[in-house]
Amino acid sequence: MNIWETLVQNFERVQQYAALNDSEGLIQPVPPPPGALERDLEAVASKFGIQLDAPFLEFLRKANGWQRFLYDLRIFSARELLSDHIVQDARDLIFVEQDLIEVALDVDAIDCLPIGISESSTDCILLLLDGSGRPGEVIWEDNGEIYARHKTLTSFFAG
């Protein structure tokens, strides 16, 4: 079993446990879809002119995105990353918070790939790209504040 199979299974168990103890019904576990096709992953890399972070590729190979990953937060699928509309929504959020991102993170917003967003469009998950100097780092931006920072996508999933 590879690391992503383990992390996804563990997170699914956490979701189920949290839902059982959620008296307000806010947590609705949704399993991730099967992995992305290799041609879709190649198209994403080509579209953004980058080589995607290896852990992110491995995640997409195991789980092609994840709707309602956590509350109303979703991780984009390869097809969603190829959709101009979906990525633009996340880029608009980055633009609104550009000063925060660039000052707090000490990176240019262009060096951030949005890999997830909340249904309310207040949260955005960013993957730092090669130009950032910290490729692979994951930032959870929540309504104008840095909610969480993880050195890797695997540590983001592991909590």
Q: What would your notes on this structure say?
A:
The longest helix is centred in the N-terminal third of the chain and has 18 residues. The protein is of the alpha+beta class and 159 residues long. The chain has a single domain, classed as SMI1/KNR4-like, CATH 3.40.1580.10. The protein is 44% helix and 20% strand. It has a 6-stranded antiparallel sheet. Strand 1 and strand 2 form a beta hairpin. It contains 7 helices and 6 strands; from the N terminus they run H-H-H-E-E-H-H-H-E-E-E-E-H.
CATH class: Alpha Beta
Structural class: alpha+beta
As a whole number of angstroms, the C-alpha radius of gyration is 15 Å
What is the CA–CA distance across the termini?
A: 20 Å
Number of helices: 7
The whole-number mean of residue pLDDT values reads 84
CATH architecture: 3-Layer(aba) Sandwich
Q: SSE string, helix = H, strand = E?
A: HHHEEHHHEEEEH
Topology:
Elements: H1 3-20, H2 38-48, H3 54-62, E1 66-70, E2 73-75, H4 78-82, H5 84-96, H6 98-105, E3 112-118, E4 123-128, E5 138-142, E6 145-150, H7 153-158
Antiparallel strand pairs: 1-2, 2-3, 3-4, 4-5, 5-6
